[in-house]
Amino acid sequence: MYDINQVREDFPILSRQIYNRPLVYLDNGATTQKPRCVVEAMVDEYYNVNANVHRGVHFLSQKATDLHEASRETVRRFINARSTNEILFTRGTTESINLLAFSFGEAFIKQGDEIIVSTMEHHSNIVPWQMVCERKGAVLRVIPMTDEGILCMDEYKSLLSERTKLVCCAHVSNVMGTVNPVREVIAEAHKHDIPVLIDGAQSTPHFKVDMQELDCDFFAFSGHKIYAPTGVGVLYGKEAWLEQLPPYQGGGEMIKNVSFEKTTYNELPYKFEAGTPDYVATHALAVALDYVSALGMDNIYQHEQMLTRYAREQMAQIPDMKFFGPSHDAVISFQVGNIHHLDMGTLLDRLGIAVRTGHHCAEPLMHRLGIEGTVRASFGLYNTREEVDALVAGIRRVAQMF
Ligand code: PLP
């Protein structure tokens, strides 16, 4: 494992006080804090390198382009994709999924086709598909789950048919911490030659993901959830699929030749990257990925598993504690008695403890669970057992007030 105290020193924000109490930041599922090296990489690039990428012959433009393209290679290595042609830079998971929904929808979805999602998807892996279905007259089908927050695999298998054109599934539930059996999800779909998109927003920060091992066709994740800046994310796609998809947006970068009669498109990955990319953020993403790689994704996983198990054990001893889902990984959703999630979150905040409350952008999941919202504590690589103790003491204190 790693030295947690030393790691915490890499994150300046962790030493600040909130309402005169030490910050206990347990909202990592929403976004993570940034290590000094990531922020400094951005400042350094703006101070010393800044120039637009890809179109300059001058020194700075070439230097910025080198950093940007080196980042693509860092991402490729990090997720073990075959080629940098398979790494598309986007603004985040949401844009990655919207890109795919538009392009895949244009090329492959027609009236009567079906797209499968699961009950526990984030809105960003539901709404873009609903929009495609509306546009094309296709049908959205939903994999059900058990009361415990586990996908019903038999029902999933029976949903697959010749009408199914795509399966879209979260790797890890942002609400319940369920780690879905995505390898099985993918293998079953592939038996019918159906491609699969995995939403990796909540898996990539917590354990090693390997595109060649998973064999998914598409995979999306956000930089800001893995210690990188906001505004940058990735869509991975197998080259054979990306070659067949039309561009998402038109503009500079994505073209080979433009005339008023006919425009031809650039090669991969640029065909999908219209306009000036956030090249400072892509560079900083690579710095963040190098940072977590140096700590070791397996070490991060062990540390967060330890924290999650410890927190579940301690919280289970609080009277009237109810958990939602299995918390396989770094996420615990709960309610205590009939204390409203918003009250719990607001009062914890006064103790310096940052958690998230509400539907967590998963309203269909809330409907399935028969609730309006939960309180969610989510862990990152810098959280400690003492912070779990502070959370547990905070919940007890709030419960006593009611
Ligand atoms: N998918 C999941 C599972 C998420 O948890 C989130 C964000 O919370 C998203 C997608 C959307 O990510 P972003 O807002 O970074 O695009």
Structure described in brief:
Helices cover 41% and strands 17% of the residues.
Brief descriptors of the model:
17% strand, seven-stranded mixed β-sheet, globular, four-stranded antiparallel β-sheet, 14 helices, alpha/beta, binds pyridoxal-5'-phosphate, 41% helix, 402 residues
Written account of the structure:
The chain is of the alpha/beta class and 402 residues long. Helices cover 41% and strands 17% of the residues. It is built from 14 helices and 17 strands. The chain has helices at residues 4-9, 36-48, 59-79, 93-108, 127-136, 153-159, 182-191, 211-214, 239-244, 279-295, 297-316, 341-350, 363-369, 385-401, and strands at 17-18, 21-22, 24-25, 87-90, 114-118, 139-143, 164-170, 196-199, 218-222, 233-237, 255-258, 263-265, 321-324, 331-336, 353-354, 356-358, 374-378. Strand 8 (196-199), helix 8 and strand 9 form a beta-alpha-beta unit. The longest helix has 21 residues, at 59-79. The two termini are 40 Å apart. Bound molecules: pyridoxal-5'-phosphate (PLP). Pyridoxal-5'-phosphate binds at residues 92-94, 122, 124-125, 170, 174, 199, 201-202, 222. The site of pyridoxal-5'-phosphate has 12 residues, from helix 4.
SSE arrangement:
Layout: H1 4-9, E1 17-18, E2 21-22, E3 24-25, H2 36-48, H3 59-79, E4 87-90, H4 93-108, E5 114-118, H5 127-136, E6 139-143, H6 153-159, E7 164-170, H7 182-191, E8 196-199, H8 211-214, E9 218-222, E10 233-237, H9 239-244, E11 255-258, E12 263-265, H10 279-295, H11 297-316, E13 321-324, E14 331-336, H12 341-350, E15 353-354, E16 356-358, H13 363-369, E17 374-378, H14 385-401
Helix pairs in contact: 2-10, 3-10, 4-5, 11-14
The protein binds pyridoxal-5'-phosphate.
